[in-house]
Amino acid sequence: MMMRRSLIAGNWKMHTTDTEARELALAVAGNCLGVAERDVLLAPPFTVLGSVSECLKDTGILVGVQNVCWQEKGAFTGEISPTMVKAAGGVAAIVGHSERRQIFLETDELINRRVVGGLSFGLMMILCIGETREQRESGVTFAVLEKQLRGGLAGVQAKDMASIVIAYEPVWAIGTGLTASKEQAQEAHAFIRRLIAEMYEKDLAGQLRILYGGSVKPTNVDELMAQPDIDGALVGGAALDAEAFGRIVAYK
Ligand code: PEP
Q1: If 41 and its partner were Cys, which of 9, 54, 81, 141 is the partner (CB 3.0–4.6 Å)?
Q2: Which protein residue has the closest C-alpha to ligand 1 atom 1?
């Protein structure tokens, strides 16, 4: 089996003032010492990106954002450009999070512009996809994942796929305390990898990192990460607790 370097990413969502962010970043760094074989990434709000990057310099922990525009500058009120992200120390962007899709009505087409734009400026792009509870119950999970994956990656060339990470996040498991079972998660991840092999090629699919997200906690991380197609986690709530996040990063 192809070895993929695991990635544990923390999505801080709309939490932390500057003081809180510095405190949390330093505590996370303290709890992640000695886990050099995995990548760790924190995605704080834009306003504290620079502070968090500064606190984490020399720790090896990566910093990213929770969304990004496709343009470098201009009349895009409310948006942040890839160049701004990089200047503040960011190397990655999460896009297509279900909260962006559901609350802010972001479409696959818009998310795709973010993906393609972010890649063109050299950011690692973490594309989130996932089905709602109603979609799972009506048996259309794989159709939804396929639509979001094909839509989100439209126009992305094979040579850029090394900078893509997919996060499978069943919407019904985000912030709800419900987690997909290890079998449900593995089944979805294997589907995603097969589809990427079909869209690109098998070797590329074998190298792609696919993260699971949805109420990942210290108590469920070990069994999820033991699945052959799960290469890390995107963590929301537990990422705001330095001790819990440290335990997740150090999964067995
Ligand atoms: C997320 O926000 O991406 C997420 C998975 O949140 P939580 O871990 O709180 O379910």
Answers
A1: 9
A2: 236
